[in-house]
Amino acid sequence: MSSESSKKRKPKVIRTDGAPAEGKRGKGDTDQDVRYYSEESEVDLRDPIKDYELYRETCQELQRLMAEIQELKSRGIKENASEIDERRVQSCVHFMTLKKLNRLAHIRLKKGRDQTHEAKQKVDAYHLQLQNLLYEVMHLQKEITKCLEFKSKHEEIELVSLEEFYKEAPPEISRPAITLTEPHQQTLARLDWELEQRKRLAEKYKECLTSKEKILKEIEVKKEYLSSLQPRLNSIMQASLPVQEYLFMPFDQAHKQYETARHLPPPLYVLFVQASAYGQACDKKLVVAIEGSVEEAKALYKPPEDSQDDESDSDAEEEQTTKRRRPTLGVQLDDKRKEMLKRHPLSVTLDLKCKDDNVLHLTFHYLMNLNVMTVKAKVTTAMEMTTAISAGDLLSPDSLLNCLYPGDHGRKTPNPANQFQFDKVGILTLSDYVTELGHPYVWVQKLGGLHFPKDQPQHTVAADNSLSASHMELTVKLLRSRLQSRLALHKQFASLEHGVVPVSSECQQLFPTKIVSRLVKWTAIPYEDYAELPYTKDVIEAGLAEDTHLYYMALIERGTAKLQAAVVLNPGYSTLPPVFSLCLNWKGERNSSNDDNIRAMESEVNVYYKELWGPKPGYQLLTNQLQRLCMVLDVYLETEPHDPSVEGPKEFPQEKMCLRLVRGPLRLKPFKFNYPQGFFSHR
Amino acid sequence: RPRLLVGLDRAAPPERQRRRNPRLELGRAGPQGGTQNSPNLPQNSPRNIPKFTLKWEIRAWSWAELGRKGCRELWTRRPPCRSSLEVPEINGLEVNQRDHWVALAGGDGAVRVLDLESGAFTHELRGHQDLVHVVALREQLPQVLSGGEDGTVRLWDLRTGAQVQLIEVHKYQECSRPQLGKWIRCLATESDWMVCGGGPALTLWHLRSGTPTTVFGLAQPQHHALFHQDLVLSGGVGPALHLLQLSGDVRGKVPVTPAALRSLCLHPRSPEHQVLTVAGNSPKIDVFTNLGYRAFSLSFT
Q: According to the model, what pLDDT value does residue B42 have?
């Protein structure tokens, strides 16, 4: 039992005096110093190996004893009790030995640990020291390097070079004696000098700043003054307008025009410039103006960013519209056509005034995509003109400017490149759109400086000033004469329709005083009617009658004789004379193919027209020709030989004085009137 | 091969020439000028070609020179003129190759003869009351036939210088057509026969008896007629060349370009190369190699 209890007890520190180990802490403290085990001193004396051997022996003994006890116990209890007790006591002794050994072992261990611990601690301390020292070394090294690398701010200051320094600095600063030898002092001196200089400069800088402020203020004042001047100048300009008008020097107006002209497309600009120049230099009655919307013109040439925005917007809009409703193919094509035929929003107007105050208004447009110019014409007359029925086409805007130059009928586009553009959008020819767009005559292109070589599409045709200038004068003259001739014809037609052939006093000498044949009818006929007449074939074959010309029918009568005259009037009247084709209905139908005299009569008016021009500019040609026709009809009828088979006197007694009635193998009648003798002879 | 050369009246403005229908007549007189066709002249001798205009003068060009540029006339002759008020015209001429003289039909009513060698006007035969339109030469005898506006055909003898025969065509019922007039424009003669026409109908006359034997039934006045083999070729108002037989039948009526014919000219030399040229109221000259149809036309560029 006690062995068991001793086993149960923890290995406690037992005092040598045998007192129990339960001591309080307070007591324990003081006791602890006293508590000292003999084993502690024994440990150093005893040999561990021997202790180990002892341990082994003891264990063996114990084992032997236990075995014996066992044996004895197995034999019987009462007999061997004393042996068992003996053995038990021995084993107890052995146990005690073991315990001692254990204690020894523990103490040895403890001691060993303590020693190790101590040594370790020392080592650690040294280690720490080492670390500390190393750390400090490192730190110091860093500091050293830092110090070595330290750049003093003074090195960043740009100092003047040494020579300059010694030159400029006053001696009290530079102290050459000291500074030359010691670099430190030198640097200090230099820094001093730098400081002084900088202070001086800072002073100056302040002064300059203040003066600048002052000047700025002055500028402000003056600017205000000037800006207040602008409205005053405007008011002066306004006030001067009446003066300008009074003096006929419309500078303001011209200035405004030039401003607008800057937005014109190049061909129109060329036209504008040339026309203005010509008007100022040669022709006071030519007035040039610009019409149209400048904002739209500006809108055409927007800068790219804006246009990109616009494009994106318009794309969005387009998508929307296509989602809503698909435009038909025809509508798309129509839009494309409209786009191709688009006109520039600005147009140039030319007003040609004539002596009798009739005005020819020409409006020139520019078709941007086709690079051609077109013109529209209008006539305003000074007085109200009695419109003759036959004169309807004379002043019509459509045909007024036809063939100003020969062959220039203005129905086809003069730019050969346009044909390819037209093919894309299905336009056959520009003549379909001529009524709204105007006529693209070749002379219009030339006035705008656009020169298109025939039958060769060019890449770009740029407006050329010299081309325009060379054509301007001639074209303006032609335009004027065209207007005048048309107006003259207009007047003449009004008279002709009443059966009166107006002959001016200068032309009276071309005709005898008495002419019996009268003009009975004067009408305009269409080209198709003219072409159907049998006696006009020669004229058509000769190429003198085209559909750009104007056609009329005159009827001259005397008695039973009726003379029909088909007239083709060239647009270039009166430089190009009208051509007459005659047919006489009197005892049969006679015309130039079966009667030589009728042909001679035709030649009297067609070939010898130069006598009939009358006073310049020759607008009386037509009326003189008609009067001459009446005259030769008289001669023809009166000189007809009397037919003896017919009873009664001649229908037309001869009243005209003729030298000879028949001449030449053609047996022609005398159609030429001689003034002042008043007789007829052959040519 | 016949060479055809024509001359234009340069007075007419060029753009009007076509309208004026310059009648370029070959072989006979034309109002704007005429030439004698080279077949009438011997090929080997460079002959002068007498030419006249409606003026009162005769001009001659050398046949060889005509083709070159800047050719000028060889000579010009102007017959004597009576009145200065109105200068008459020469309406027709005929060249006598053998004796080298030219007979001229004058607008003043006289038939003149110009001697080509001396250049003098040897005869002035007066008798016509009005202008003389045409002259024709008799082959064997030195006689000249002339037809005029007064409706007469007169036969003149050049040796005596007197009128030998007078035929007043318009007085004969068979051929006269008073509604058209009595003027004689075309005249041709062969041996004893004569064909004449104009206002009166084209008629074949026997000269010795002075009687009309055949009247050709052509409605329109004829301007020029020719004897050819056994035919009479004639042209006048109307775009046709008439081939007439001496019996009076119309052998053929060939269409031509001009609206009226003024001048016919035949190549008389070689019978195998039959060439006829006609001209009239047209800027084109028709050429026939076969009398039945027109071969081609010459036109001016």
A: 30
Packing angle of the helix pair A418-425, A329-340 (nearest 10 deg): 160
Main-chain dihedrals φ then ψ at residue A470, nearest 5 degrees: -70, -25
Phi, psi of B257 (to 5 degrees): -70, -45
pTM of the model: 0.64
How confident is the model over A368-410, as pLDDT tens digits? 888 888 888 888 877 776 666 776 777 777 777 877 887 777 7
Report domain extents, chain A.
Answer: 37-149, 158-249, 251-301+332-454+464-483, 499-642+650-681
Task: Give, in degrees to the nearest 5, the angle at Cα B204 between B203 and B207.
Answer: 125
C-alpha gyration radius of chain B: 18
Measured CA to CA, the distance from residue B130 to residue A664 in angstroms comes to 11
Segment A230-246 shows an average pLDDT of 84
Q: Which among B82, B198, B194 is positioned nearest to B150, based on CA atoms?
A: B198
Measured in whole angstroms, the distance separating CA A660 from the mean position of its chain's CA atoms is 82
Chain centre distance of CA B242: 16
Tokens 């005053």 sit on residue:
A232
- Measured distance CA(A205)–CA(A386) in Å, rounded: 90
Instruction: Count A/B contacts: CB-CB distance under 8 Å.
Output: 67
B3 touches chain A (CB under 8 A): no
Alpha carbons B226 and A641: distance in angstroms, whole number: 28
- Chain B nearest-CA distance from A494, in A, is 30
- Smallest CA–CA distance, residue A351 to chain B, in Å, is 35
> Edge-to-edge strands of the sheet including B121-126?
B90-96, B101-106, B110-115, B121-126
Instruction: Give, in order, the Cα–Cα distances in Å from B240 to each of A228, B189, B214, B244, B261.
Output: 99, 22, 20, 12, 8
**Spatial contact of A681 and A671, defined as CB atoms under 8 Å apart:** no
Phi/psi at B145 (5° precision):
-100, 140
Nearest residue of B to residue A537 by CA position? B19
Q: Is the pLDDT of residue B29 over 70?
A: no
Which residue ranges make up each domain of chain B?
Answer: 4-215
Q: How far apart are CA A591 and CA B147, in angstroms?
A: 27
Does B4-215 carry CATH code 3.40.50.720?
A: no
Strands B143-148 and B152-157 come out as: antiparallel
Query: Dihedral sign, CA of B21, B27, B29, B32?
Result: positive
Average pLDDT in the A347-353 region? 87
Q: How far apart are the first and last CA of chain A?
A: 190
Best mutation target among B10, B16, B89, B299 (most A Cβ atoms within 10 Å) is B16
Q: Which residue has the higher pLDDT, B194 or A678?
A: B194
Q: Of B12, B31, B179, which has the smallest distance from its Cβ to A664's Cβ?
A: B31
B204 by DSSP, 3-state: which? strand
Tally of CB atoms within 10 A around A180: 14
Has residue A459 got a pLDDT over 80? no
Nearest CA in chain A to B108: A663
Alpha-helical segments (H) within A35-80: 38-45, 48-75
Cβ atoms of A640 and A650 within 8 Å: the answer is yes
List of chain A residues whose C-beta atoms are within 8 Å of the C-beta of residue B90: none
| Cα–Cα dist A115/A360, whole Å | 136
What average pLDDT score do residues B78-87 get? 75
Q: What residue of B is the nearest CA neighbor of A596?
A: B281
pLDDT in tens, A75-126: 876 666 787 788 888 888 888 988 888 888 888 889 899 999 999 999 999 9
Which residues does A255 contact at the CB level (< 8 Å), separation at least 6?
Answer: none
Closest CA–CA distance from residue B242 to any residue of chain A (Å): 17
Percent of chain A with pLDDT over 90: 12
